[in-house]
Amino acid sequence: MILQPIIENCLKHGLDVNHLNPTINLDLIIENDEFLICTITDNGKGVTTTESKSKDGGVSLHNIDERLMLMNDKISSESFITISNLSNDLPNLAGTKVELRIPLIYL
C-alpha cells in the first residue's frame, strides 16, 4: 500500500502514451538491518518543482512519509522519502527517482 501511490504517480505524471519504451524499475536493498531501501525509477519526463508541491501528489507523499515516521521507533525529523530527477548525458531530464527508507520491524 505504500508503493502503490508512487507507482501510480509514475504512470500518471511521468509516462505518457507517446513515450517510447516506458520503463519503471523497482530496487530493494536492506541497509544495516535497519531499513529497507526501496528505489523506484522511471524514464519519463521528470518532476518540476511545481508538480512536486502540487496538492494531488503532495498529499499522498506526505501521508506515506507520516506512516514511515510512525513505523520508526527512533525520534527523527528526517524525511523517509527522497524525490529527484534523473538526467542523461546531454544533460536532459530522463526520468524520476523516488527513494523510500522503510524502517524494518522485527518481531
Chain-wise SSE layout:
Blueprint: H1 4-14, E1 24-31, E2 35-42, H2 49-52, H3 55-71, E3 81-87, E4 93-103
Antiparallel strand pairs: 1-2, 2-4, 3-4
How far apart lie the N and C ends?
A: 21 Å
| % residues in beta strands | 25-35%
User: What's the number of extended β-strand segments?
Assistant: 4
Radius of gyration: 15 Å
What do these coordinates show?
This protein has 107 residues and is α+β, with helices and mostly antiparallel strands. The protein has a single domain (4-103), classed as Heat Shock Protein 90 (2-Layer Sandwich). It has helices spanning 4-14, 49-52, 55-71, and strands at residues 24-31, 35-42, 81-87, 93-103. A four-stranded antiparallel sheet has the order 1-2-4-3. The chain is elongated. It starts with a helix and ends with a strand. 16% of the residues are buried.
